[in-house]
Amino acid sequence: MPLCLESIVRKLILSDSARLSCTPKLIYRFFNAKGPVRNRYARTYFGQVLPFLPVIGVPLCSYDVKEGKERSGVAMNSTVPERTSLIIAVEINSIKDQTEKLVLHNFIEIGRRLHEAKALLPHGEWLQWLEESVDFSPNRAAKLMRLYDAYGLPHSSLLNSAAQDQALSKLSYTQALILLGVPEEERTQLLLDLDIENMSTRELKKAVDKQKQIQQEKEQAEQENTALRQALDGVKEENTELAKERDSLKQEAVDLRKTQQALQENIEKAALQNKKLKENMNYKSYQRVRNDLAAAQAKLFTSQVAFKYEALERAFKELSYELDLLANLDAQVHAGYMSKLNDFLLKAMRGRMQG
Fold this sequence. Notes:
Layout: H1 5-13, H2 16-19, H3 24-32, H4 35-48, E1 63-64, E2 69-70, H5 85-120, H6 126-134, H7 138-151, H8 162-169, H9 173-179, H10 184-193, H11 201-280, H12 283-329, H13 331-354
Antiparallel strand pairs: 1-2
């Protein structure tokens, strides 16, 4: 019995294989249109799903689109293009694409049920159940469960909107496996941003590799920033310690000045006593006082030399530290000050040797 065009399109839409090849908008318009308008949408849809006529039992070359009826045994030169290698390639690629989408859908459902089975099985029986019940290796089962985790409900965020649902419906099994190589948030963004339906496997893999490189560069930059922050914290801590040491040195300097002042006062008293002794005491007493005065002077000079030496040593350490910091900031300026420092030290040594 002849089939009208509208009946064939309705059967194709209800077929899982053919339904995936048209847009939801076209299906909506077809079922909500009437009369000639529905017939026009039917012709448009029929052109998209022509390779799927055998799925519902209608031979590919037995239907006249223009007249809307079957033509058993009659060639369709006026309505169906001549069979060529190009047309055959288009049909094969279309069927292959739809098959991959169906495979992805079915594998997601298998992954869902694998999750369910694993939750039900007692501990230690999972691998045996895989081998004996479904003939799956652990690796294959893990891959199918990952597909469900990435693209199935309710775990994934991919299906939270109609736009994401539409993007997933255009995804093939091979493309889905490639996209597993990126984190979920980035995978979702790639599905929304890229025209995956019209991308080859190589193009998609290149886009994923580029995304991975961007992520690696981002992580490397974050690691470098962390290292710099840690180095900065170290420098701040060092500066804090140096500030404490500087305050301690200042206090020591104050204490040394007080000691020097006390020694100076003792020297002045000893000198006064010496003068009085010279006038009122014999030579022996005078000599003893003179020796005490000399000892006091020697102690004062020793204290002054020790204080100045310690101050010079600390100043040299601080200068060395500041030069090290300068080397990291400006190597040229650092080299100039190192040259000046070397000249100063050489001149000082020559002066001491000549003196």
